[in-house]
Structures are given as structure tokens and as C-alpha cells.
From TrEMBL:
This is Glycosyl transferase family 1 domain-containing protein. GO terms for molecular function: GDP-Man:Man(1)GlcNAc(2)-PP-Dol alpha-1,3-mannosyltransferase activity. PANTHER family: ALPHA-1,3/1,6-MANNOSYLTRANSFERASE ALG2, ALPHA-1,3_1,6-MANNOSYLTRANSFERASE ALG2. Coiled coil: none annotated. Residues 195-356 form the Glycosyl transferase family domain. Pfam families: Glycos_transf_1 (PF00534).
């Protein structure tokens, strides 16, 4: 690294409340012994996120309320405008974990090395604007004005960002196409997935596994309807949907669709998640225009083919008819893809492709992370 002492790093993340890709990446920063890292957040739920966070310095700023979608957005915006991170200038680098809106914290918290760790620009203002606008009358009234105002603030906030870290070319392209930051100031670390020790004696069972948070844009209902339409139930297959119930009402709706061969589980333990990955036949991933898509990468790490919608980040990692299948986001296309794995020869080909997929493991991620931080640290203060 550029200096012998540890690099002192401040990371802001709006909330730590689940076991998702964002939380996994934050942990990688905390675990890296080259850095002295403090995390600042508005909301920290120790019971819902990874236990490993308990070992580190998590500073809660105020008390943000996580109510409905629109209300939550306004509460977060207010908190970001008012928040002041203590002693920010004492840190060597300031990293903002953002999926849109968090960069507004720079209005009162400017650092000489401000880095946006961008999972995506705000989806409701860009890629999923029409989706959310259709959701309710309230959204149809509020969103057009709110998004117009937000885009002005978004441009102003990004002018205060010196560099950006992303995890996929999909997100890099979004930042550039929205004219938020120059392409030369973006560092793509690539994603990170956990690679297990594969027991060759592990038995594959007739399980189609969809591991993902329960929230509407993950489209678990589409998985259920496609599975019912397919031939798989006749051949003894089960569909298992498992993940954190982020949208409680949506989870209740999905839970009602469960049956003897459609199993819906929330708050899976790490052991349950690992066991399902090991046992499953293939995995599904049907989220709308996903930014990067850590679930498909985890599936490939377990040598499991992935059936994913042909949208967003997963297109970078899923090679159609090689290590998985890319399909249209409709029941018939997904059902046909499910039926295709009944062909033993074709299924074996997909499994072999999954085994040969590009590796995005911890070692590669840490190396890219350290190289990026090192390069940023060598650049002069703005």
C-alpha cells in the first residue's frame, strides 16, 4: 500500500437491516486488516443483518424510520440533508454506499477523497420509474414532481463525488449514460461471491431454488406461476423460495401461494441457505433489471446452473445455454426453460458450464479493492 500505517476509512451506508449483497461488501471492508474502518448509518438492525457486524464499530446517526416506500424515501432524504458525520476530516477516505440518494449526504459532509460505492443510481428515478409510478395513485401523483426535483439534487451531489466504485459494467454504464460522473473516474471491482468447499458426494435433489429477498421487484410470483405451468411438478420437483422478508405484505401474499411442492421460507439461516444451494437442481433469478445480481454468482459458485431473466447485471455472468439460461420475463418462457432441464444431456452441459464459470471469489475481490484504494490514495486532494 502507499503507506505503512492503516488507512483510516469512514463508510456511510443508510441502513444495515438485511443479509444482502450490500451488507456482504461492507463486511469485506471491515474485515480487511489494511484499513481502520468506521461505519456510519441511520438504522442498524442487529437481529436481521449478519452477526459479524457486532465485532466492528457501527455508529448510528439519529433514528431514521423505515415506513412505506415513498415515506421512507422522504425520511431518508431529510436525514441525509441534516446528518453530519463527526470528525470526517480525520479520515483518509470517505466512502458512501449508495443505491441512489445517499450521495446527498455530501451536501454537509464533503471530504477531499469522496468515493461513491454505487450499487446503482436511484432505480425509482431511472430504470424503474414507470414500475413504481404504476404501483399506486399516490405514486402517480407524487413521483413525477419528486423525481424531477431529485434529479437536480442528484446532479449537484455527484459533482461533489471524486470517484466511484461499482461492481458491474451495467452500473458503470448507467452512471455514464445519466452523465453523473466521468467514465475515467469509475473503478469496477467486479462482484464478490462466497465459494464453498464442494463435497463431490453431495446429492442433487429435485429442488428448484429461488434465493432472494421478498420484495415485489424480485417477482417471486412469476417463479411460482411458471413452475406451476411447467412439467416439473409432474416429475416430482419442488420449488423453494427463500430469503429475507423485506416487504412483509408481499411475503404474506407469496406465502399464501405455497403448497406441498411450493415451499416459501423467510429468514433462512446460513446453514439452510448453504444446504439448499448444495441440494438444488437449478436456481432461478427473476428480479427486474438487477444492478449486479449476487444470487446468480453464488449459484454458479455452488456449480448450479441459473435460469435468469435477460435483464441487467446477470447478463454479464450468465452465458445462455452454457452455464444457465437467459429468458424473457414471462411465465411461458420461464416454464419452457424449466422444462429444458428435464433433458439429462442438456442439464449436464449446463452443470459443466457452471463449474467452468469465471471465478469472482474473495481473493480476487480483495486484490481489486486494495488496488483501487491504493490508486485513489495516490491521487492528489481535490
Amino acid at each position: 500500500m502507499v503507506q505503512n500505517k492503516k488507512i483510516k476509512m469512514a463508510i456511510f451506508v443508510p441502513w444495515l437491516k438485511s443479509k444482502g449483497g450490500v451488507e456482504r461488501v461492507i463486511l469485506k471492508f471491515l474485515e480487511d486488516k489494511r484499513y481502520q474502518t468506521d461505519v456510519f448509518t441511520f438504522f442498524y438492525d442487529k437481529n436481521q443483518t449478519f452477526d459479524e457486524f457486532n465485532k466492528y464499530n457501527i455508529n448510528v446517526l439519529g433514528n431514521a424510520k423505515l415506513s412505506g416506500f415513498v415515506t421512507r424515501g422522504f425520511n431518508l432524504f431529510k436525514s441525509l440533508i441534516l446528518a453530519k458525520i463527526p470528525n470526517l476530516k480525520s479520515y483518509d477516505i470517505f466512502i458512501i454506499s449508495t443505491a441512489g440518494i445517499s450521495e446527498i449526504i455530501t451536501f454537509r459532509n464533503k471530504h477531499q477523497r469522496t468515493v461513491a460505492m454505487c450499487h446503482t443510481p436511484l432505480r425509482v428515478a431511472h430504470t424503474m420509474y414507470n414500475y413504481y409510478k404504476k404501483e399506486s395513485i399516490k405514486n402517480r401523483i407524487i413521483l413525477p414532481f419528486a423525481v424531477s426535483v431529485y434529479k437536480i439534487l442528484e446532479r449537484l451531489a455527484w459533482k461533489r463525488i471524486d470517484y466511484s466504485i461499482v461492481f458491474s459494467e451495467e452500473v458503470r454504464n448507467r452512471l455514464v449514460s445519466y452523465h453523473l460522473i466521468d467514465n475515467k473516474k469509475i473503478f469496477n471491482l467486479g462482484p464478490y461471491a462466497k465459494y464453498p468447499k464442494i463435497n463431490k458426494t453431495s446429492k442433487t435433489e429435485k429442488i428448484i431454488f429461488y434465493p432472494s429477498r421478498f420484495i415485489k421487484y424480485k417477482r417471486q410470483e412469476l417463479a411460482i406461476n411458471a413452475f406451476k405451468m411447467s412439467e416439473l411438478p409432474k416429475h416430482g420437483f419442488k420449488l423453494v423460495l427463500g430469503g429475507f422478508a423485506e416487504d412483509k405484505e408481499y411475503f404474506k401474499e407469496i406465502k399464501k401461494l405455497g403448497s406441498a411442492n411450493i415451499i416459501v421460507k423467510d429468514n433462512l439461516s446460513e446453514k439452510e441457505l448453504t444446504d439448499l444451494y448444495k441440494k438444488c437442481y437449478v436456481t432461478l433469478f427473476l428480479a427486474i433489471n438487477e444492478d449486479t445480481g449476487y444470487t446468480p454468482l453464488e449459484s454458479l459458485a455452488y456449480r448450479k446452473p441459473v435460469i435468469a431473466v435477460n435483464e441487467g447485471g446477470p447478463k454479464e455472468f450468465i452465458k445462455n445455454e452454457e452455464n444457465g439460461l437467459l429468458v424473457n420475463a414471462d411465465e411461458k418462457s420461464i416454464a419452457n426453460a424449466l422444462n429444458s432441464v428435464l433433458n439429462r444431456k442438456f442439464y449436464t452441459k449446463l452443470v459443466e458450464g457452471a463449474k467452468k464459470s469465471k471465478v469472482y471469489d474473495e481473493k480476487r475481490f480483495i486484490m481489486n479493492l486494495d488496488d483501487t484504494v491504493n490508486e485513489i490514495m495516490q491521487k492528489p486532494y481535490k
